[in-house]
Amino acid sequence: MLRFFASRLLQSLLALLIIITATFFMLRFVPGGPFTAEKAVTPEILRNLEAHYGLDQPLWKQYLDYLGSLARGDFGPSFKYPNRTVNEILGDKLPVSIELGFLSLVVALLMGLPLGILAAIRRNTWIDYVSSSFGMMGISIPTFVVGPLLVLAFAIHAGWFNASGWYSPMDRVLPCLVLGIAYAAPIARLTRGGMLEILNQDFIRTARAKGASELRVVFKHSLRGGLLPVVSFLGPAIAGILTGSFVIETIFQIPGLGREFVNSAFNRDYTLVLGTVILYAGLIMGLNLAADLTQAWMNPKVRLEG
Amino acid sequence: MATLAAPAASPPTPPADQIEHGSSLWHDAWLRLRKNRVAVFGAVTLVIVAVACFLGPLFSPYGYEDQNLDLGASSPSLQHPLGTDTLGRDLLVRLLYGGRVSLGVGLAATFVALTIGVVYGAVAGYFGNKTDAVMMRIVDIMYSLPFTIFVILLMVFFGRNIILLFVAIGAVEWLTMARIVRGQVMAVKRMEFIEAARALGFGKRRLIFRHILPNVLGPIIVYTTLTIPGVMLLEAFLSFLGLGVQPPMSSWGVLIKDGAEKMEEFPWLLVFPGTVFSLTLFSLNFLGDGLRDALDVRSSKD
Amino acid sequence: MFNRRFVLLCLAVLSLVACKKSDPHSSGTPGATIPGNLRILNLGNGAEPQDLDPQVVTGVPENKIINALFEGLVAYGPNGQGTIPAAAASWTISPDGLTYTFALQPDGKWSNGDPVTAEDFVRSYQRILTPSLIAEYANKLYAVTGAEEFHQGKLADFGQTGFKAVDARTLQITLKRRTSFLIESLKHYAWFPIHPKTVEKFGGLARRGTKWTRVENMVGNGPFTLKEWSMQQRLVVEKSPTYWDRDAVKVDRLVFFPTENIETEERMFRTGQLHKTNELPLDKTDVYRREQPESLRVDPLLGIYFFRVNVTRPPLNDKRVRRALALAMNRELIVEKVTRQNQQPAYNACPPMEMFTSPVRLQGDLAEARRLLAEAGYPEGKGLRPIELLYNTSQNHKKIAEALQQMWRVNLGVQVDLVNQEWKVYLDSQDTLNYDLSRAGWIADYVDPNTFFDLWRTGDGNNDTGFSNPDYDRMLQEALNTANDVDRMAVYAKMDALLMDEIPFLPLYFYTRTFALNPAVNLPQNLVETPNWKFIHFKE
To answer: The CATH number of the domain where A96 resides is what?
Structure first.
């Protein structure tokens, strides 16, 4: 187990290095830089700005300098927000994203898992169709429609919530609900699919023949195997919720990482893009590792390799 | 216990129409699918939508770009069955043209993602060890690269191009598929029947493609039906970035996005594209579920 | 997996989250009265401010906040127009128009109690002109003797520039040439003072991006002080107890909300979270007109919406083709049916303002346009390659572009392809002249026609069309050197005529600023969106 862990860690670090390098150079190839602006600056100013941020150095030197500062834990200053460092910005936004992500995931699991399990055990009955349709609606109605709809209904007409913002606990409700619904749908469908696979296996038939109650059959015997596809999906899904909630954060004006992930690219804020990418990559690899471990635990047949 | 009797003569040949032909997995699946009413309904709906999108505009007096600024946005009427948008363009025609783009992109990009993802995931899952580690790390790397920058780069270097749209979308969607397939393959490859097949001497390729994959088809199909709506909406996001269909051409994703912003003033701009979009997705999913059920060899139809 | 322990853990985390204290600054209800009957104004402010250093920032959202925290020598009057004393109580101009002497307010104070002195101003100007600060708006001070040279590093001694502190309360500014709009340009924040001791404490006077603008460190001389700055959440300023004119300030607190999504902002207004939005979605304008006209504000704004033409690229290098395109645009239809925000169709280069209403108007009808196109060798558009129109991602720009695309197609037979580019790519395409037509907008920096005409100078960073005309450049210099305002306006009129003859750009309309405003708030109009927060308050 320890060997597995250590080797995965090493692989992840190597992967991280590749990601940093690729992103670093990709950023330099896109047109427009951090200082390209509508009201143009004079060439001297531009030159001075570039010198100040070290952008006039040869590219390989900038790259090495950046790696050096990374090793010290310093992600550099933000280009777009001159008086803030990337460390600060990430530090401010990560907790928000984590909270949003965690709560949304809880909502998604609370809605999706029961729906999927129900649909599987009562397959092809009206319960199946209703919960499947529910799930389908969650996927086919995009968040940028559900969000404003809920705001219209509950914030504007009913007046129960603010239209946007992340100030009081009540402000958490609508965004997490919308994001949760969006993820509940795939979770429900994957659960249903996974459970169906397991429920058709012989050992389930055996358990039933032995007189096990339906509840026992479902929870004790099938869940572990049935949730396998969900677990595989959850890894990237969690990372996605944490950093890909761009639409939700825009609609509800939430100061999270999802918006920064996209906006920093638009602003060509090189250091912030790299900071968010590194964070995201670390998260992905960590979560995938967790997903693999969970999978191994849930299905003893999958031995940990590598 | 029966006594040892002399072997009987070979049984008489039944009449031709009662001979049972040997059946393959696919043939059985097809028969089962046909019986699944919901799945058939889904398939039929899809066909209707597709035909409408490709042939429908021929029957309309309006082009998708014909504006009527004086009219502006108007609710459904005799001249415009689905109403008009804020520039006075007929919504029905735009919806049909948009369907071409969305269905085309959705299905093509998903197909690409599916092909790459399944093969990649299967290979990684089957071989395990170092191969798996390297392949999955590559997936992790590609997952982490900033998509926005990647798209902008594509746009810059290769211009605006519908093919590029496929590339960009496919390049992102196959990753999760690969992960799921890998997980499933790793679970299945240890099952007894695979060991049996290996003992029988079947080669790796045959094992993977003819024995393992058909047994992991379930989650793959489910995930595919989940991918397609994502692809269609991703196309809307890409149009937002400048890659994707350029106005005045539109797609369902763009129509829905536009409609969402105006849903209070001009609800038909959201309702119609949204309904068609959802209907298509429901159909795809029912068809997908039907396929999954049909292909499930252990499905308890008793 | 879903055993009891897991469920308990979830509940524990949830309850922790829910226990976060409700926020005292937020006001979910309109009128915003919170403990102590404070008058709080909630404002939608567009993008998150990049920084609050008046000598480093360049944007409009920052402008609004900086005008609350700092004060310049002069400011806009109560009705949003004219000039009233601000940090300077009075001023005189020498007869030759080159020396301005300002008497500062006798009880002008910084937020930490220090008096505002002329030396503070001089050191502030030194700071913005110091090359290492890399101030992008340093060139706004170039009219002053020695400023440009000092900024370019050619002059080492700041004492030799035209900025002088005659005594503690008297500031003198000497120009190298007459600039009739100098007083007007002093209202821009590039001319605002900073507190030198505070700035020096945090890394030196001329270092960029230091922490002196943080809440705990910030010192300003304006009507408000910085109370809270939560990035991407809100920025709160409170009435300053040391401001010299504090009795005139009738609001206790301003809360600036970053509102990047205008649909979200409009919803915030409707739930009462905001008293004023920054913008209003195009399609909502009519709804407000119909249902809530008292909440709708459509203010004139000095700005022009136009399309740059790359005059170096055939066939657009032919003046007749450009003119045909310009004449075939039905501006009235666009303004009435597409944008619907009372914009004024533009037939020249500069919007009308108090001192200048241009006599120039682009003349010609559709028949003329067709004739020109045919004369250029493309009768009914035949033989003309598709022309690309570039615009940056935005619903509004897309709508306008689509309408124009159709007009050109139907009226002239010219095929125009729309190209939507992401913001930086779009800017870059313009800078590198990699486009045919490109949508653009220009808002005035100050209330004077010069800001609309110096764009088109040869090689100006904001020209971006390849347009170069020595006569034009000459007239621009001439205008700057003309003492008499009437004569100066006459020069601008000639320049306008030249532009409408050469057509390096296609004018579309003059901007308005449309936003939603709670009828309980009194907000005077301002042509360049620079608010004087003293005069903004709740109606009694």
So the answer is: 1.10.3720.10
